[in-house]
Design brief:
The complex is a heterodimer. By secondary structure, chain A is an all-alpha fold. Chain A contains six helices and two strands, in the order ααααββαα. Chain A starts with a helix and ends with a helix. Classes of the chains: A mainly alpha, B mainly alpha.
Chain lengths: 141, 362
């Protein structure tokens, strides 16, 4: 019951916000889902933060693999530009939703990449709050 | 009096041949693989020049004809003897020893062109014989091609030596003769018979035959190469992090090993749902190196013992890239050994033709 209420509240909040052109219902649903998980993990959770997402994106981790100390090692300092796989040189499409509207719209893909890359960069899984912050940051860019 | 001995077509033939054989030798013996497209092109030109010369040997002007310099051992021996006594008899066309050298050069060059076409077809899967010659035949014949290449260098050196010796002894600049076509002759020497009136028609006929035959052969499907489309899942899952490698670049056992350990994939977790792993493994093994006859597929069947799943650790890969500087790989547009298409424009086709190599400058 509580979940439904929260979902409805999030949906209402999202609906009340003026939507940019690249808004996508699937991404909104994904964020709502992470919000539910974040709240479940931490009752004090008070919503996602683009600023925290930006910090997560840029922070370097000394204990990560040498080629991939941070998200931006592959995805680039400017997420609106294409990135490049730090090991293989393969070009990666931009992470910022404004430059690549397909980002964060397929749940399985999003979970796959968080699953792999959080381990590579942070040496652990990301929390739902971190995932939501990250998507919120990149949706605003 | 200086009579025209070598007509313009014969002289053009000679100097074009010198240029093409010279470049083929240079590229074959010394230049890196990226020049080999020009080696092939020059080889084609040599082939056409030899066809021209065959026609000219029958229908050309008098001194270009085979009948004017028959390969007669007794005459050759007599001529060499006269050279040793430093009193050679002047000849209007080829002297007997020179004529023998022409046969040796032309036969060797014909052998080089024929073996070259077989190697080109079998090893590089290019040219008119690409649809007919297996890789194994191509590389076996390559030994012969390389032997004939040594022979042609020796013959060319002897030919040039003979020209210089005769020029000196006869006080006639034979190199100049091959430029302006004229030789000093005794007064009253009748001018040589001109080429046959049918010569140009026959040449045109030969050209048409070569064009039709060559085009027909080129249309044959390439032996041991087929166009394949990559499954969408392959491009999406594997191609997200690195090039979607052509499946011919690893043998089936290596693909199985790679796909069986995706959670530890070259230091990364690349795990996929079981169904996707199974489907991709099936596609990769069905199209693995064993099922192709291209050079990379043949060579890359031999994998690194320590890293059987790493294409760039295979002995052949290492050998082919040993002269490429680290700075080439380190530049941003390349970044790693794994980025085939940074230099190989045809990487996705699995052909890796020398003509499709374009190495960015660091």
């Amino acid at each position: 019951m509580k979940t439904t209420t929260l979902l409805a509240a999030t949906a209402a909040l999202l609906a009340a916000t003026p939507l940019p052109a690249w808004a996508d219902p699937a991404r909104d649903a994904l964020l709502a889902d992470y919000a539910v998980q974040a709240k479940a993990a931490d009752p004090a959770f008070g919503g996602f933060s683009a600023a925290r997402g930006q910090s997560l994106y840029a922070t370097k981790h000394a204990d990560a693999a040498p080629e991939t100390p941070a998200c931006q090692a592959c995805h680039g300092e400017d997420p609106r530009q294409p990135g490049q796989n730090a090991k293989t040189g393969k070009v990666i499409e931009p992470m910022a939703v404004s430059a690549n509207a397909k980002r964060f719209t397929v749940k399985d893909d999003v979970e796959k990449w968080f699953g792999r890359n959080c381990k590579a960069v942070l040496s652990r899984d990301c929390t739902p709050a971190e995932k939501g912050d990250y998507i919120t940051f990149l949706s605003a860019r | 009096m200086r009579l025209l001995i070598w007509d313009l077509p014969t002289r053009l033939f000679h100097w074009l041949l010198v240029g093409c054989v010279g470049f083929c030798a240079l590229s074959g013996f010394l230049l890196p693989d990226t020049w080999f497209g020009w080696h092939f092109l020059c080889g084609y030109v040599i082939g056409l020049l030899l066809l021209f010369r065959a026609v000219w040997g029958v229908l050309g002007p008098e001194h270009s004809r085979w009948t004017s310099f028959p390969p007669a051992p007794s005459a050759i021996i007599a001529h060499v003897k006269s050279l040793l006594t430093a009193k050679p008899h002047p000849s209007l066309g080829h002297n007997p020893a020179g004529g023998a050298m022409i046969y040796a050069l032309l036969i060797t060059l014909t052998g080089l062109v024929v073996t070259g076409l077989i190697v080109l077809g079998g090893e590089a899967k290019q040219g008119p014989l690409a649809g007919l010659i297996p890789f194994a035949t191509g590389i076996a014949v390559k030994e012969l091609h390389e032997f004939l290449a040594d022979v042609i260098l020796l013959l060319a050196a002897l030919h040039l030596g003979g020209v210089l010796v005769e020029s000196r002894l006869l006080r006639e600049n034979l190199i100049l003769t091959m430029i302006d076509g004229r030789k000093t002759t005794a007064p009253g020497t009748p001018p040589p018979r001109p080429r046959s009136r049918r010569a140009l028609a026959v040449l045109s006929g030969v050209a048409v035959l070569v064009g039709v035959g060559g085009t027909g052969l080129e249309r044959l499907p390439v032996l041991g190469w087929r166009p394949i489309g990559f499954p969408a899942a392959y491009v999406k899952e594997c191609g997200a992090c690195h090039a979607a490698y052509h499946p011919s670049l690893l043998p089936a056992a290596s693909w199985r090993a790679v796909m069986g350990a995706l959670s530890e994939h070259f230091g990364e977790d690349a795990s996929l749902p079981d169904a996707a792993t199974r489907d991709l493994t099936a596609w990769l093994t069905a199209n693995a190196a064993e099922t192709w006859d291209t050079e990379p597929a043949n060579r890359l069947r031999t994998v690194s013992a320590a890293q059987p799943g790493r294409i760039t650790a295979a002995p052949w890969w290492m050998r082919k890239h040993r002269h490429i500087a680290d700075t080439v790989f380190q530049q941003k547009s390349v970044k790693s050994h794994a980025n085939c298409s940074a230099c190989h424009q045809d990487a996705e086709r699995g052909t890796f033709a020398v003509q499709a190599i374009s190495i960015p400058k660091p």
